[in-house]
Every structure is written in C-alpha cells, then in structure tokens.
Amino acid sequence: MKFSVITANYNGSTFLEESILSVLEQRESGVQLEYIIIDGNSIDGSIDIINQYRDHINVLIVEDDTGPANALNTGLRIASGEVISWLNSDDIYYPKTLERVEECLGENTTASFCFGRCPIINEQGDEIRHSITRFTELFFPISSRFVYQSINYLSQPALFFRRDIIDNEQSLLREDMVAAWDYELFLRLWHYGKAVFIPGDPLAAFRWYGDSISGQNFSIQFKEELKAAIDDAGKWSPQVFLHRAVRWGIVGIYSAMAGLRKSDSVSTSSED
C-alpha cells in the first residue's frame, strides 16, 4: 500500500522541520511513502529548511497559491498513492502512524477512510485543551455520517482516505471556503464507504496557537461547517438542528476563551 502525504506551507518555518521529520520517520517502519511539499513562495527561511531534506522529499513545488486549499489541491492532483493524507506544516505524526493505517485499511477493504486520536498541542508540544479532545472522542464509538453531519468530531491530521475517491476536479477541496474545506470533503467521504476508528495511541497532533489558521478562523470555520452540513443533510434535518445547537455552545466557549486571552495580553502589556 502506497501513501501520499501532502504538506502545504507558507511562512511556517517555526514548526516546519518538526513536521517534516515526523513524516519522514514513517519510512522507518517500512511503509511506501510519497512525500509532497507545496510551498507558497515563503520568505521566512522555510525553503532553506525544506532543502535540508530535499533528497527525501519526492515532489517539491514552490509557487504562489491562493490559500491552503488551493495548495493542497495542487498536491492532490499529482499524488499517486493509494491512500492520501495531508499534514499542515505545524502539525506532527507520531511514530508508526502510517503502519497502523496500512494495517487498518488492509483489513477493512470497504472503508473509504480511517481516523484516530489527535490531541491538541501548543507551541512547546504540550497537550492543551484536554476537555475539547475528550469531548470529541466521545463520538468515536458511534461514528457515522449522521453523527458527523451533526458535529465535526474528526481531526484532519489523523484522517486518511483512499485515493480513488478524489478522481476528478469536482471531488477536490472547495477553494471558495476559508476554513472548512476539510470538513466539507470529509462529509463527502461518507458517501463512498464506512469510516474505521483506529484505537490506541494518537496518530497525530494538531497544533493550536494564536497565529495558526485554526486559531484565527474558528468563527468563520463554524459558519462554513454549518453550511456544508445543510448542503449534505438538508436544511430541516435533525442533524442540522443538532449541528446548530452544538455549534452555538462551542462558538460561545471559544469566543469567551479568545476574550480571556486578549484580556490577559492587554493586562500583561499594561504591567510592562
């Protein structure tokens, strides 16, 4: 089984090397890996970091893009692996992740994708927001298209899908979306087969910090996710009703947390 892992980067030098090494380490367990990096003409030293590992990267494209979805679509068009995933330049895989995915999809031939645990980490690599992670993991045992239409409980870095699902331009990521293009794609994956949860240790880690895309766009993301759920399930479906209720609570919590961070920052500046 051949994997294609895509990393889209633009000025992400801070955590880029850690991310690259976590991908390259997967080859130590014997998996067949095609590693693709799409860089949007970074000016922060990212290219220097990438070039240190150029001999181990199958495809490197450096060109302007219109955003992460556009860059990832460039990688998806050329990916030749049977199983596809993408890893943002600030996220990481854990050792033997692809080996575990290969075993899972090899045993579950009718599954269109598989997923696993994915803690949230900070700049230092320490796990944070434990309650959010534990909350989303409550849905793993009852995972289904219905549940996913109701709430986005899957973490993108720890999700892997079969290549033949995205076999034309219409099946690629939605470039008109700002932040929920992954959720919209994953909703479509359910149309092609079941999802399988890989139990045990986490497969990947998702990094959350002030400058991350997720840290900046969570309000937009939730609005786009609701629109995607409506398109997939229907405006008056019970899934969308649940989605609205859950998102209302989560947006309120996230907004309060953002306000507290801003207040703390102002207080610290005043003290200085």
Describe this structure in words.
The protein is 44% helix and 18% strand. With 272 residues, it is an alpha/beta fold. α1 packs parallel to α2.
Characteristic key phrases:
272 residues, four-stranded mixed sheet, 44% helix, seven-stranded mixed sheet, Spore Coat Polysaccharide Biosynthesis Protein SpsA, Chain A
Uncertain segments: none
Proportion of beta-strand residues? 15-25%
Q: Which range best describes the helical content: under 10%, 10-25%, 25-40%, 40-55%, 55-70% or over 70%?
A: 40-55%
User: Total number of β-strand segments?
Assistant: 11
In the CATH scheme, the class would be Alpha Beta
Gist of the model:
The chain is of the alpha/beta class and 272 residues long.
Walk me through the topology.
Elements: E1 2-9, H1 13-24, E2 32-39, H2 46-52, E3 59-62, H3 68-78, E4 83-86, E5 92-93, H4 97-107, E6 111-116, E7 120-121, E8 127-128, H5 130-137, H6 145-150, E9 159-162, H7 181-189, E10 194-198, E11 204-207, H8 213-233, H9 238-271
Parallel strand pairs: 1-2, 1-4, 2-3, 6-10, 7-11
Antiparallel strand pairs: 4-9, 5-11, 6-9, 7-8
Helix pairs in contact: 1-2, 7-8, 8-9
